[in-house]
Amino acid sequence: MVDVSIVIVSMNNVKQLFPCLDSIKKYTLVTHEVFVVAYLFTPENLKLLRETYPCVKVIESNVIRGFSENNNLALRQAEGRYCFVVNDDTELRMNTIDRLVKTIDGLPDDVAIISPNIIYPDGRAQCCGRPPFTWRHWVANKLHLWKEADDRKYSNKSGVFQSYNITGAAFMIRTDVFREFGLFDERFFFCPEDIALSTSVNKKGYKCYVDADAYLVHDGGMSGKSCSMTQTATLPAAVKGMLLYYSAGNRLGLYALSVVMFVVIGINFVFHYVSGRLKDKPNKNIIYSIAELNTLRVIFNKTTPKEVFIHYYNKIR
Prior knowledge:
Number of helices: 11
Strand content: 15-25%
Radius of gyration: 20 Å
Low-confidence stretches: 222-226
Helix content: 40-55%
Oligomer: single chain
């Protein structure tokens, strides 16, 4: 058995995927296997990936799938003691994976997940542990009354410390525990599959930890500051996923949260729509307003996050 199965989903994004793979090769000494889920790759890029990285296990994904579904394609084949799920727009600058393996090997067996310290390319902190999330946190965050960074119990500490939630951008999990939970919940298309997983892990008595001295760089959209039309499909799908998760099957709770989000997103829509016609950079605000209008249209219907994404994504292809 290898130590780590590294899983990367890439949406035809060789520009960032290749530096990510190069950094893994350079800085990872523990025994490992690398899976790349080649999501909607062009034939040219798929050929280039196979020729440039012959040791990578490539899984073609040629129909529309969400983050959970695409990752699960590879995770079902993972043979490592641990799975390291990481975005393609990340890059190692140290032996991050080796250090995480060493750290979690030294922790009690009830520690199921270990996360690195995630930073932006310019060195700014992005994510170093995450607190618990409830529907109250979600609503307060949307109203700009609460931020993750406000919580100091589970995040932004030094050394090795207990956290609560993870970010899907980069985390390591015991493979047997991951399979115990059925891998990622495929009901969620873009989010909050990471929060759903780590919250369930905590509720079952396992723990999530962070090693703040093991870091990696996550672009996190920094290289593409112009807003993409894809957001007009991803935002409504994401909001539907959050409503599905936080309502937890409670119909009254779903309705109440939907009303709150309708008001909040409606206010944002008006702001971005007006700003798009008054400010120097109208395109970005117009895209935001389209995304928010699409979200308003689907908040109260019974479509799934995936159905919502497919509907709006097909309109911009």
